[in-house]
Structure formats: structure tokens, C-alpha cells
Write a structure and sequence with these properties.
The chain has 334 residues and is an alpha+beta fold. The chain has 8 helices and 13 strands. The strands form 3 sheets. The protein has a 7-stranded mixed sheet. Strands 3-6-4-5 form a 4-stranded mixed sheet, covered by helices on one side. A two-stranded antiparallel ribbon has the order 1-2. It binds magnesium ion.
Length: 334
Amino acid sequence: MSDASDLPVDEPVGTPGHAVRTLADVNEDALLAEILPVFATGPAALLGPGDDTAVLATTGGSVIATTDTMVRDRDWRDAWSSGRDVGAKVVAQNLADIAAMGGRPTGVLVTVVADPATTVEWVLEVTRGIAAACQESHVAVLGGDLSSAPPGTLMVSITALGSLDGRPPVLRRGARPGDVVAVCGTLGLAAAGWRLLESGREDEDTQAVALQRCPCPPLAQGPLAATAGATSMLDLSDGLLRDATRVARASGVRLALDGSALAPDIRRITPVLGPDLARECVLAGGEEHALLATFPCGIRLPAGWRALGVVEQGDGVTIDGVAEKPRGWDHFSP
Ligand SMILES: [Mg+2]
């Protein structure tokens, strides 16, 4: 086995005269010696990678925790997304969950499970994507795990930890009749980007395609919404209707959305996909990671939030009074 220091790490993969290194060509310690220096440990990490666990400082007496995984050919395609995109996306998905509780992310743990035929360069690209996304949010990379997998398998998983800074968590079950339903972020663009990539039309809406490759959740808005009094909140990972239905069910209420509030989002996508598909993207498109919350009636919504409707007695989700099925992304059924 080669030592990592002997290898041409600065050469592009596939450069003539340089063999492409795969994970089978390096041992785990040599791979870690390339990965770990890419990560910043951040202010909350009292002890970073290297021992059996990291040590993370806490404030407020509680830690919030979540995990999210991406699997090749289920959650990304190599033809569409670079390793860097995948790394940044799996961080964004996790940090959006922390924000949706009203929390501030403090640290992440990273697991990569890979076929030994995976190139070292791909793993380093994922590392760089994770490192950049974490650095942007001042989040420590605390450590993780590397494991080998059967041919073809490639998976990147993150466990994110966060702090509520002494506030109570904002749950899905707190919406009350009379509350205002509001969103922060875009709707349907990531799904539109998926459809454009799928049909080879990625040049037609670069913003939508970029958001499909890597979402841009409004992370700072989670704690701001909590401070402003949000009664319930989640991030839109599986589609507006499916996620809004989760809030409705958990809270025992109806979310009555206003079609005119969604019209600008639909109009935004209509030029590239037509009105019907644009509506479907806005209502059922996953992976957007905008924040959906309810706020008590009469409070001023925080800057960046816009009203989508009201909370009523009843159940389910309606648009202009018409009941909508909770369609959207589901991992195990179409
Ligand atoms: Mg979520």
C-alpha cells in the first residue's frame, strides 16, 4: 500500500501519466490523513477527531441531534452532482433540520460507506464540500466513520448536533387555530431543477439546477423564528403538501393555504416547465429545505418570511378551501 505522502494529490484525476487512486489503493489511516486536515473544528469543539470521541461544548443544558443520509443513485447521480455538491447537500439537509427546531448547529459527525473502487479524489471532493458548508455555518466537524461496501455502493451520512441556546424547541405539534402559516425560502425550485436535469435542460434555469445540486436553507432564520414566537416549524424536505400535512396532523389542526400566496412561486417556474408541472413542483417538490412555520396571529412576521395561509380547526391541508392530498417525496413508496 502506498503512503499518502507519496501520491500525486494535487494532480487532477485521470491526468495522463497519473493513475487514478481508488480507496483500495490507500489504507484507512492514510485516507484519514488526507481528509482530517480539510475540516475545521470550530469554536464548540473542545476536542476534535483523533480520540474515540470528540468533546463538544454545550450551552443551555441540552443538545439537539439529527441524522440524514445520501445514497448514490437514490439521492444523487454522479452525472449530475460532483462529490463537492453531495458533501454540501448532506450538510445542508442536516443543518436545515437543526434550524427547523429553532436551533443553531454546533457540530457534525460524518460517515462515508464506499465501494473500494471509489476514487480517493471523489472522497476528498465530498470532504471539501462538507468542510466548506460547515465552515460557512461555523460548525465543527467532530469526526465520523469510514466503512467499505459491496460493489457500486456509495453513501454519505451526517449526524448533526445543535444548541437551542436556552430556548424551548419549536415542535411540529404547536400550531393553533388562528395562527399564521408562513414560509422562509423558495418553493419548488429544487424539484424544478431535478426535472430540468432529468430532461437534459439544465441550462434553462441555472438557479433551480444549482438548488437541486445543493439546497440553500435559511439556517439563521430558524432561531430567529423561534425567538419571534413560532408555534410550530419544520423544513420542507419532502414537499409543501406532505410536510404541511405533518404539521397539521401533529398539531390536530388544518393548514388552510391561500392559492394567491403560492402563485408567484408557480409563476417563477412556469416559463421552463409550464403551469401544471410548475404547480406540482411548488406543492409537492422535495429537497427545497425552506422553513415552514406557524406564528401567533397579530405578530409581525420576521423579515424574510411571508404568509401562506392560516391555521384553522379541522385537519389536513387545503388550498383556497379545497382539500389537498399529502403528496410529495416518500423513500419507500412512489
Ligand atoms: Mg426535516
